[in-house]
Write a structure and sequence with these properties.
Helices cover 37% and strands 25% of the residues. With 198 residues, it is α/β, with parallel strands linked by helices. It is globular, with a radius of gyration of 17 Å.
Length: 198
């Protein structure tokens, strides 16, 4: 039996490797933007959107590798008003997004789905609530200049494990959820299925 991560996310791969979980990583062959638009048009909230996209990624790889356990993951960000944010396309757009998040509380939803044989057999959704301090335009400019385009790979535009922690006043939730892979529930499932030792 093998575990496939349906993602090339460096953060998720590093979490699995550090935890001693053997896996391979494959890009999910699906149109994520099209599915995201479909789910939003159906009125899906941020939590449902994250789970739906995690399902899609897991199922798309499972169709090609039906004997494997395929882990699909997704993360969404929403303000308390329900307004959702996508990954910024460039640093100028990210500066605008960080200004919008400044001084406010948002939720990060991290969803995981495991598919085998073309069916989703396990799901987990976790939430982290994060309150940014008031960010000055000068701080945002300095932060983006120091961190660069690597920030564009995450929906929040920050790397909490590095300089991004300076953006926040309070953080409620698992560090792993913030990075995008709620690890402890996943490890419990992998032990139950025999993919890692009890």
């Amino acid at each position: 039996m093998s575990l496939i991560l349906a993602s090339q996310s460096a953060g998720r791969r590093a979490i699995l490797a550090s935890a001693g979980v053997p896996h391979e990583a494959l890009s999910a062959p699906c149109d994520e933007d099209l599915e995201k638009a479909r789910l939003r048009a159906a009125g899906m909230d941020a939590a449902g959107l994250a789970q739906g996209l995690a399902d899609l990624k897991a199922l798309s790889v499972s169709a090609e590798r039906p004997a494997a356990f395929v882990l699909g993951c997704d993360q969404t960000l929403a303000l308390e008003t329900g307004e959702m944010f996508d990954k910024a396309p460039n640093l100028d757009a990210l500066a605008v997004q960080l200004a919008q998040l400044s001084g406010r509380t948002h939720s990060l939803f991290a969803a995981m789905s495991i598919a085998r044989g073309g069916e989703v057999i396990w799901r987990h959704l976790d939430e982290a609530r994060m309150t940014m301090r008031a960010l000055s335009p000068a701080f945002i400019a300095d932060y983006l200049a120091a961190e660069g385009e690597g920030l564009l790979s995450g929906v929040g535009g920050y790397r909490i494990e590095g300089r991004g922690i300076q953006l926040f006043k309070t953080v409620e939730g698992s560090h792993f959820t913030i990075i995008g892979l709620p690890l402890l529930p996943l490890l419990a499932f992998l032990r139950e299925t025999g993919l890692i030792r009890q």
